[in-house]
Amino acid sequence: MIEVVIDMESEGESISTHLKGEIVIPGQLIAEGRYRVGRWVYREGDKYYAYKLGLKDIRSVKGKPTVNVIPLAGKYDPMVGDLVIGVVVDMGPTTWLFDINGPNPAPLHITETPWKVDFGATGRYFKVADAAVLRVLYKDDTSHVQVTLKGPGLKKLHGGVITEIAPSKIPRVIGKNGSMIAMMKRLSRCQIIVGQNGRIWISGEVEQVKLVEEALRYIENHSHLSGLTAKVAELLDGDASDAVRAREEGDAPPRRGRRENVKFERRKE
Amino acid sequence: MGSPKEDITLIDEKGRRLDGRLPNELRPIKIMAGVLNRADGSAYVEWGNNKILAAVYGPREVHPRHLQNPQKAIVQCRYNMAAFSVQDRKRPGPDRRSIEISKILSEALESVVLVERFPRTTIDVYLEVLQADAGTRCAALTAASVALADAGIPMKDLIPACAVGKVGGRVVLDLFKEEDNYGEADLPIAIIPRTKELVLLQMDGHLTVEEFKEGLKMAYEACEKIYELQKQALLEKYTKRKDDLLDKETVEKFLERTEIPSEKTELEGGEGGGEEEIEAEEIVEEEEEVPEGEEVEEVPETELLEIGEEFMEE
C-alpha cells in the first residue's frame, strides 16, 4: 500500500480531486428514486432536494439507503446531549446564564451542578466570563435551552485558551473515531476539549497551544477536502508516520465499552 | 417611473437600446459568495452598474424582545443606499422607499427560509447599495439569497430576481437608469425556480394584459439564467482553484518529503501517470463523514456525540 503525504497548498494541484463529496446548493435535486430522507433533505414525490449548502451524502442506515446533506456552514443549533463550552454572561440568585454560542443564552440552574449552592450564593461558584464544559439538558419546541454541569467530564474550566471555529467543522476536528483529535493531543502534548458548539479549550505550553490553534484554523478552512490528517501532522511538527497511525486508529473498531460508560441519558422529570 | 420624454430615443428601429442591448438581454452580472469574514454569510453582486453587498447574521437573539415569535424565526432585511450610490448625494438613513423595499425583500426571503426551525430568533440581512443604476431591489434580493445560503441557513431554494419594463412602446428586460426614468413601466419579479412560484411582484406604470404576459415570460427566462449564476457563485467559493489534475512533479515532491523509500520505488515501478497519483492520494483520506456500508448504524449526530464524550474524558 502506498501512503502519500499531500500538501494541499502545493501548486498545480487540483481541488476537485480532493473534494469529499459533491457540493449541493439549497433547492438542488440530489437524488431520485426510493430513499430515506436524512438530514437537511426534503422530498417531493420521488425527488429529493437539499435544504442547505453542503456535501451530498448517500449512505446506508440500518440497511436502507438514506440521503443526507452534510452542512458546510451554519451557526450552532443546540441539541439535547451536546457537549458544549459555555461562558457566563449573567447570573441570578438561582441560575447562571451561559453563552453557548447558540441563538439564545442558556441558563444553568443551581440544582444542575455537583455542588450544594445556597440561594443567592451563585457568585461564589461562577463569575461573569468564567467558562465551563456543559451538556445541553433540555430543549423545547420554542428553543428554550437548559444546560447541566452534572455528569462525567463536565467541569468549570481553569486556565487554558478557548478558541472558536465554525460548528459545522467540528466533525472534521474530531475525525473518524476521534483519530484527528487524538493525534493532535499526542503531538502537541496539550489538553484539548472540543465542544459541539464550535468552542475548543486548549491547555498546555504556549508555543504548542499556538500550533494547535493554527492547525484548527487550517482544518476549518479546508474541511471539505481530504488529506487533512497529513497536513495537520505536519503543522504540529509530526511526520508521515503520525498521519498513518491516525488513519489506522480511525479505521479501528470503536471502543464500545468506554463509550457506553459515559453515555448521556436525558433525565425524565 | 418618471414622465416619458419626447426628445430621447430609448430604443432604435433595429431594436437596440441605448446601451446596445437587445430587448431580451440582461446586463452583465457578476456574483461572489463569502466576501466578508465577520458576517455569518455574505455576497457581492455587480449587475451592470449596480454594486450591492449583502451580509447575513443569524439565527440570533431578537432585539427588541417583543418582536420575537415563539413559533418561528423572523427575517429582517435592511436595504440601505449609500450616500454616494447615486449622482446627487442621497440623504443617509431610512426613507419611505427603503423601508418599503426592506419589507418586501424580508417577505420574499421568509417564503423560502425554514423559519419554523429557529423559533424565537431573527435572521438579519443587511443590503448595502454601493452604486445604483436601476433594478437594485432585484439585485439586492439576488445577493441576499446567495448570502443566506452561504450562511448555512436552511432554505427551500435560492431566489433569483429580475425586472422587465416598457420602453419606447416595447417590452424590455432589465431596465437601466435612463430606461427606468423615462420609460413607461417597470415590473420587478422574483421567483422560486423549482416551483415557479412568484415571491415578489410590483408594478410601476402601465402595461396591457398582453404586454404583462410577455414581460412575465421574459423575466422568468432571465431568472433561470440568474439562478445558474447564483449556484455557480456558491460553488466557486469552495472550488476556487481549478487546475485539473495533479502533475507528476508535485507528487514526486510529496514523496521526497515523506522519506519512505519503499513507496517511492513502488510508484516509479508503476509508471505514475496522473490517475495513479490520485489513487495514491485517496488512500490517505480519512472519511469520518462517509464511512462505507454497514459500519454506520446511527444517525451522524449520535455518532459524533459519542466521539465527543470519549475524548473529553481526559
List the helices and strands and how they pair.
The complex is a heterodimer of chains A (269) and B (314).
Chain A lengths: L22 E2 L4 E4 L3 E2 L3 E4 L2 E4 L3 E8 L2 E8 L11 E9 L3 E5 L6 E4 L21 E9 L5 E4 L6 E3 L3 E4 L5 H5 L4 H10 L2 E4 L4 E5 L2 H16 L6 H8 L4 H12 L4 H6 L8
Parallel strand pairs in A: 3-7
Antiparallel strand pairs in A: 1-6, 2-5, 4-5, 6-7, 8-9, 8-11, 9-10, 11-12, 11-13, 14-16, 15-16
Helix pairs in contact in A: 2-5, 4-5
Chain B lengths: L28 E5 L7 E7 L2 E12 L12 E8 L14 H15 L10 E11 L4 H15 L10 E7 L2 E4 L3 H6 L2 E8 L4 E5 L2 E2 L3 H30 L9 H11 L2 H9 L4 H11 L15 H13 L2
Parallel strand pairs in B: 4-5
Antiparallel strand pairs in B: 1-2, 2-3, 3-5, 6-7, 6-8, 8-9, 8-10
Helix pairs in contact in B: 1-2, 2-4
Describe the structure.
The complex is a heterodimer of chains A (269) and B (314). With 269 residues, chain A is of the alpha+beta class. In chain A, 47% of the residues are buried. Chain A is built from 6 helices and 16 strands. In chain A, 21% of the residues lie in helices and 29% in strands. Chain A has helices at 170-174, 179-188, 206-221, 228-235, 240-251, 256-261, and strands spanning 23-24, 29-32, 36-37, 41-44, 47-50, 54-61, 64-71, 83-91, 95-99, 106-109, 131-139, 145-148, 155-157, 161-164, 191-194, 199-203. Chain B is an alpha+beta fold and 314 residues long. In chain B, helix 1 packs across helix 2 (136-150). Chain B is globular, with a radius of gyration of 25 Å. The interface between A and B is large, with 98 and 89 residues.
